[in-house]
Design a protein that fits this description.
6-stranded mixed sheet, ClpP/crotonase-like_dom_sf, 3-stranded mixed sheet, Enoyl-CoA hydratase/isomerase family protein, 9 strands, isomerase activity, about 45% helix, globular, 2-enoyl-CoA Hydratase, Chain A, domain 1, single chain, Lyase 2-enoyl-coa Hydratase, Chain  A, domain 2
């Protein structure tokens, strides 16, 4: 019984907090630099799936408990003695677990903000760069440790990195395993902003407040168009934009935006 309780506690947890229109997810497994266990990944998938259809939410915030954001998936525990996965296990399971987390963060119509301290490695790095906005303190480190550990990249790194920073820089991170500090990550366009540690929380809350006060439907449609149009030509891109515009123009926030413009005041959007 004692061993079972210890194993359960060691699996870590993802804290889920609703703060008005903000959904806060806190990755908490501090003794392993917030490395993700199967239980934690399942929680992220379930929570983000529910958030996608929650009309009361307007922004998602993901952070790590303690000194680190997330050091990736806990492959050491997964491949410990006597627990090696059977052949084909990764192909069957990963698309519905770790890969699904990245897909949800990338595709959910709510804006997603990550706050990074310490390590953002492996899936932790990819989770941060899949978000719409990532803020990191200047001591944070972004690392894709796949090749240095002897296996090929996963969780979207070979798709996300070239699009964000170009092929050459992507190869530096993926093939050479170079670690990138927050200042360089911001300079490359890998993340939104690097800030001094004592300013990170304030900068994050200001951004969350701004996004939560925005026209949620229009924000979601714009996010979707940006991502879809990376793979299209101009004509199809404008068709995608037109689809989003058609939906956005039917919202109460659209009417409020026009009224505020006519009345020369700031709009008060309600996410509807």
């Amino acid at each position: 019984m004692t061993n079972e309780k210890t194993a359960e506690e060691d699996a870590g947890a993802v804290g889920v907090e609703r703060d008005g229109p903000v959904l806060r997810l806190i990755i908490d497994r501090r003794n392993r630099r917030n490395a993700l266990s199967h239980v934690m990944i399942d929680t992220l998938v379930a929570t983000l799936t529910d958030a996608a259809t929650d009309d009361e939410l307007r922004v998602v915030h993901i952070s790590g408990a303690g000194e680190n954001f997330c050091s990736g998936v806990d492959w050491v525990a997964t491949n410990s003695a006597g627990k090696r996965p059977p052949t084909g296990d990764l192909v069957r399971r990963i698309p519905h677990t770790a890969h699904r987390v990245i897909e949800l963060v990338h595709s959910i119509h709510l804006p997603v903000v990550c706050t990074v301290r310490g390590w953002a490695a492996g899936m932790g790095c990819n989770l941060a760069i899949a978000a719409d906005f990532t803020l990191a303190d200047t001591d944070a480190v972004f690392w894709e440790p796949f090749l240095p550990r002897g296996f090929s990249p996963d969780t979207g790194s070979t798709w996300l990195l070239p699009r964000l920073v170009g092929v050459t820089r992507a190869k530096r991170m993926l093939l050479l395993g170079e670690k990138i500090d927050a200042a360089e990550a911001a300079d490359w366009g890998l993340i939104h902003r690097a800030t001094p540690p004592d300013e990170l929380d304030r900068a994050t809350e200001e951004l969350l407040t701004r996004l939560a006060a925005g026209p949620t439907v229009a924000l979601g449609m714009a996010k979707q168009s940006i991502h879809r149009n990376l793979r299209t030509g101009l004509t199809e891109a404008m068709d995608n934009e037109l689809y989003g515009l058609e939906l956005a123009c039917r919202t109460a926030d659209f009417k409020e935006g026009l009224a505020a413009f006519r009345q020369r005041r700031s709009p008060e959007f309600h996410g509807r």
